[in-house]
Amino acid sequence: QTYAPKLILLDISDISCIRDVAKEILNCYGCVDILINNASMKVKGAVQSISLELDKKIMDANYFGPITLTKAILPNMISRRTGQIVLINSIQGKIGIPFRAAYAASKHAAVGFFDCLRAEMEEFGVSVSTVNPTFICSYHRPPAPGNWEASIWK
Q1: 104: left (phi over 0), alpha (psi -120 to 50) or beta
Q2: pLDDT value of position 94
Q3: Where is the signal peptide, in residue numbers (predicted)?
Q4: pLDDT on residue 153
Q5: Which three-class secondary structure state does DSSP give residue 23?
Q6: For residues 98 and 44, what is the distance between their CA atoms, to the nearest angstrom?
Q7: Euclidean distance between CA atoms 113 and 63, whole angstroms
Q8: Which of 46, 88, 92, 126 suits 98 as a labelling partner, its CA being 20 to 30 A distant?
Q9: Strand order of the sheet with strand 34-37?
């Protein structure tokens, strides 16, 4: 069956709205066959120059965002005993490089979560995959003066 596309805006770092968006999707279509977690934020800077607030924002976008969305969609896949979940992650989820501590930490956490999820979902027929590309060309948001997000890439 073919469905008309529906555009739903979602800030993956805003954890509070993810469950409502998932409900909206499930109410509209009844199920999700394939969930591709592809949103990400990265920051470049020395550990001592990145604020804890920014560390948390990166962790929200790269770890808590994808797992919150996945957990919201997962019961539907389990009950139907089918579905596919894909995490587009980063090679930095496997190795760390200088000046990327917050990003690498969030990507390591995501790899750990989705590796465990893969093992747990086998009995339910839900496939879980993680893709760790070496480099993804992102866009950089131009910083506003005094903007703490100046070094964020999306």
Answers
A1: alpha
A2: 81
A3: none
A4: 53
A5: helix
A6: 9
A7: 9
A8: 88
A9: 34-37, 83-88, 126-131
The token pair at 65 is 């965002």
Decide if 29 is catalytic: no
d(CA 3, CA 81): 22
Q: What is the dihedral of CA 137, 60, 93, 77, to 10 degrees?
A: -100
Residue with tokens 């590309």: 133
The pLDDT score that the predictor gives to residue 19 is: 94
Q: Taking the model in full, what pTM does it have?
A: 0.84
* Alpha carbon distance 144, 130 (integer Å): 34
pLDDT of residue 154: 47
* CB 32, CB 71: distance < 8 Å: no
E-strand stretches of the chain? 34-37, 42-43, 83-88, 126-131, 152-153
Measured CA to CA, the distance from residue 104 to residue 65 in angstroms comes to 16
CATH class of the domain comprising 32-133 = alpha beta
Residue boundaries of the structural domains of the chain = 32-133
In the set 3, 29, 63, 103, the catalytic residue is: 103
